[in-house]
Design goal:
By secondary structure, the chain is mostly beta strands. The chain is 13% helix and 42% strand. The chain has 1 helix and 11 strands; from the N terminus they run H-E-E-E-E-E-E-E-E-E-E-E. A hairpin with a 2-residue loop joins strand 9 and strand 10 (152-156).
């Protein structure tokens, strides 16, 4: 009985996977661009209206920008060696996240930190849309992120506050 149920579950999962592969989605992508196997779009990402920084461990939005309005901050303490696993989510004109494929080489992320003596930002290895913040000394700085498509920026965020406390 258990093996029949397990077989039915496997068949069901295969059917769902096939349906997703055939139906797919093209959120944020322009027509004619491929939908990569890891989910998300891989193509020209247009109409970006904001960005969110989400702690993947808690699901909490640390900071965000919607149009010109910035809310929240990225906060780290000097006791933390590294604030690890912050997902950078670009937002469309409805402020919904644009799912961008991790394996898409047409799009990339870059950033600038106003004062790297306060905090340094690195990319999470193997995860194109994730950053880490390394607190270096107590103080405040800002972070700006850009999404690039084929070598040129399509969106640059406003200055996002980064606060490091003892």
């Amino acid at each position: 009985m258990k093996s029949q149920r397990r077989s039915a579950d496997i068949v069901g999962m295969i059917a769902i996977a096939c349906g997703l592969a055939i139906g797919g989605c093209d959120q944020g992508a322009e027509p004619g661009h491929d939908h990569p196997p890891d989910g998300g779009t891989c193509g020209h990402v247009s109409s970006v209206s904001g960005v969110q920084f989400v702690d993947i461990h808690t699901g909490e939005t640390l900071a965000s920008q919607r149009s010109a309005a910035v809310t929240g901050e990225i906060h780290a303490t000097l006791q933390e060696v590294l604030l690890h696993g912050i997902e950078v989510k670009f937002l469309d004109t409805s402020f919904d996240p644009i799912e961008i494929a991790n394996d898409c080489e047409l799009n990339s992320l870059s950033w600038t930190v106003q004062d790297e003596t306060v905090a340094r930002v690195t990319q999470d290895p193997g995860l194109r849309w994730f950053i880490n913040v390394e607190p270096r000394r107590a103080g405040a700085t800002t972070l700006k992120v850009k999404i690039h498509h084929e070598g040129h920026a399509h969106f640059e965020s406003a200055a996002i506050p980064v606060l490091v406390t003892p």
